[in-house]
Design a protein that fits this description.
heterodimer; A: about 100 residues; alpha+beta; Ribosomal Protein S5, domain 2; four-stranded mixed beta sheet; 2 helices; 4 strands; about 35% helix; B: about 525 residues; alpha/beta; ten-stranded mixed beta sheet; five-stranded mixed beta sheet; 15 helices; 29 strands; globular
């Protein structure tokens, strides 16, 4: 799917991750910019979760800005998914 | 040559810049001999003509009078914590007059000492003995910017090292919040009051030269004389010894973190059921979150069951003072006061006793106070399934903690409880093997996490008691696996072969080494 809007989900709180999604030109690919308090220990793991969600929504062209403060995998997955749904305007319920 | 020590840690027989290694051999293996076969060093015999002045006009003048020279050992106490100005002023002046190759032996180093980084890098300071090292200084050392490995000792271990001359003090600089012209001094009152001056008490007995620095020169005599004039060479009045707001402030509050409170409550229940909680028991807690919170729950239990304790010891917080004043304990023995409210008690309450680090935890004497402990509650940066505890290096491998009285109290107490969350900021706290060991698992009885209590398998009786009491006892290997599933297994930091730190056990043997972090990437 194609990202049309910028959107975000999550917070700067400890054990959470702030995920910002921005549209990019078609064909420019996925640009994931990750900072994390546990970068040394989990950078690959966090990137993999983000990629998994992008795959699920079949998103090829996007810029993701992720600022992690030690979120667990389910939290990361949920935040990325929500940010993407908001960017795609398909999020239902409370925003 | 590299060898595994008896705990399985990779410690060589010889360390460049340190020397031959005496390997750790067990908690009491060396000390049970009673006569160690070493002698205590003799400090120089000093004399003084009557009615002559010890007063110097400045710290510089006092240092000049102490024969500063290359290779000298300078010591400090860390009771001024993050507010200390005196370490920096002394080292800066020594560097200014061209002194090189200094051994810095402060009882600990804090956030106030990041300013030492340039002096470590340029060879002004080439050796450090300390209980703790943090922040930028820890980082610089872990990145290999220092000539010789730092030596991390416990508070008791420092007393040992000074008495045996392992740390042979040329100059001891003692900051005091009140002092008189002869050098009688204290930390218990004055604008920069910090409470007990316990760590410096040992320095002044064995140093070649002793300088007392104060920002509060009082009429003779300074009462109480926590440190006494017959051990002091020079006295200096300065504008300020530190930033009072960072030295000690207010009262230490009990944490509001639900996680810490939960862990503390579980720990208190375990203490209650362990068999050591009874009339006349003795107790020590740290000042950290969950650790201090255990005191709150013990206070409630003591009141409810009308149990009165004998003494509390250690780093003393205002919470301990409250328990003394309520009559829950007979006495406090104070080597270090953690907040401003404690100073008043040190000054005014005869049952609040200032003690030296040697009396507190020294392994080389006829019996330190930690040997009389029934219960101690300690924190941890990480633990492992052999119950070993790391309190010195962070998850990134960088030196960022302090040995403190951790291994001293753990060895002495009948019941040693470590409180720590099962994971912190996603990082699991229970490892197969800690990155560095400061306190050996042999001296740990319980590790309490919010997911359950782990009992050291060498204490079967305790496990039976706690299980019978219905407490949530979990196997430490299973708990580790459970937590790893939640957090994922972290990628461990990489190290080079360069040894940047040597961790001494309290008895002077080497329990572990710290290697430089690999910054190539």
């Amino acid at each position: 799917m194609e990202i049309k809007n910028s959107a975000q989900a999550g917070t700067f709180e400890s054990s959470d991750i702030l995920v910002m999604v921005e549209p990019v030109a078609k064909g420019s690919g996925r640009d994931i910019d990750l900072t994390s308090s546990v970068y040394m220990h989990y950078a690959d793991s966090i990137n993999n979760v983000i990629i998994k969600v992008l795959d699920k929504f079949k998103i090829e062209d996007v810029k993701i800005l992720a600022k992690d403060k030690g979120a667990l995998d389910p939290t990361i997955e949920a935040r990325v998914e929500t940010a993407i749904k908001r960017a795609l305007d398909i999020q239902e319920g409370t925003l | 040559m590299h060898t595994k020590n008896i705990l399985g840690f990779d410690v060589p027989d010889f360390i460049e810049g340190f020397g031959d290694v005496e390997h750790y051999s067990g908690v009491w293996n060396k000390l049970k001999k009673e006569n160690i076969g070493e002698t205590i060093i003799s400090p120089p015999v000093k004399s003084r003509v009557a009615h002559t002045s010890k007063m110097k006009n400045s710290l510089k003048e006092a240092i000049d009078a102490c024969n500063p020279h290359d290779g000298m050992t300078v010591t400090f106490h860390h009771h001024l914590r993050g507010g200390d100005y005196i370490v920096e002023q002394t080292i800066r002046y020594l560097a200014e007059v061209g002194i090189k190759d200094i051994t810095l032996a402060s009882s600990s180093l804090t956030s106030a000492h990041e300013c030492l980084v340039p002096f470590v890098k340029d060879g002004t300071i080439t050796r450090i003995f300390s209980s703790g090292i943090r922040d930028e200084l820890g980082k610089a050392i872990s990145e290999g910017h220092m000539k010789n490995p730092v030596v991390i000792h416990s508070h008791g271990g420092r007393a040992r090292a000074i008495k045996t001359g392992r740390i042979k003090i040329d100059l001891a600089v003692v900051a005091a919040s009140a002092a008189d012209c002869e050098g009688n001094c204290t930390g218990s009152f004055g604008p920069s009051a910090f409470g007990s001056i316990g760590y410096a008490m040992i320095d002044v007995m064995y140093a070649d030269k002793v300088v007392v620095v104060t920002d509060n020169l009082v009429d003779f005599p300074c009462i109480p004389p926590s440190i006494r004039q017959h051990n002091v060479d020079h006295v200096v009045k300065v504008e300020t010894i530190g930033d009072p707001s960072k030295i000690a402030s207010g009262t230490t509050r009990i944490t509001k973190s639900p996680m810490d409170l939960r862990i503390a409550e579980m720990a208190a229940d375990a203490i209650e059921q362990s068999g050591v909680f009874r009339e006349g028991y003795s107790f020590q807690v740290g000042a950290g979150g969950a650790s201090l919170a255990v005191a709150k729950f013990m206070r409630d239990k003591m009141k409810a069951q009308e149990i009165k304790g004998s003494f509390m010891i250690g780093g003393i917080t205002s919470y301990c003072v409250d328990m003394l004043n309520e009559g829950l304990f007979n006495a406090l023995f104070d080597v270090q006061s953690f907040d401003a409210a404690v100073s008043t008690s040190v000054h005014g309450n005869t049952n609040h006793v200032e003690i030296s680090s040697d009396q507190y935890a020294g392994p080389y004497n006829c019996g330190c106070m930690t040997n009389k402990l029934d219960v101690v509650v300690l924190g941890a940066l990480e633990v492992d399934t052999d119950f070993n505890v790391n309190v010195i290096t962070g998850a990134d491998g960088v030196i960022r903690g302090a040995s403190g009285g951790h291994s001293d109290t753990a060895a002495g107490a009948k019941l040693t409880v470590v409180v720590c969350p099962s994971f912190r900021g996603r990082l699991p706290m229970i490892k197969k093997r800690v990155q560095n060991v400061v306190t050996p698992g042999e001296s740990i009885d319980l590790i309490v996490t919010e997911r359950g209590i782990c009992v050291n398998p060498n204490n079967k009786n305790l496990e039976v008691k706690l299980k019978e009491a219905g407490l949530n006892i979990v196997d430490i290997d299973k708990l580790r696996e459970e937590v790893d599933k939640i957090t994922g297994v972290p990628v461990e930091p990489k190290f080079t072969n360069k040894i940047v730190g040597v961790i001494e056990y309290r008895d002077g043997s080497v329990i572990d080494v710290i290697r430089a972090v690999d910054t190539e990437d």
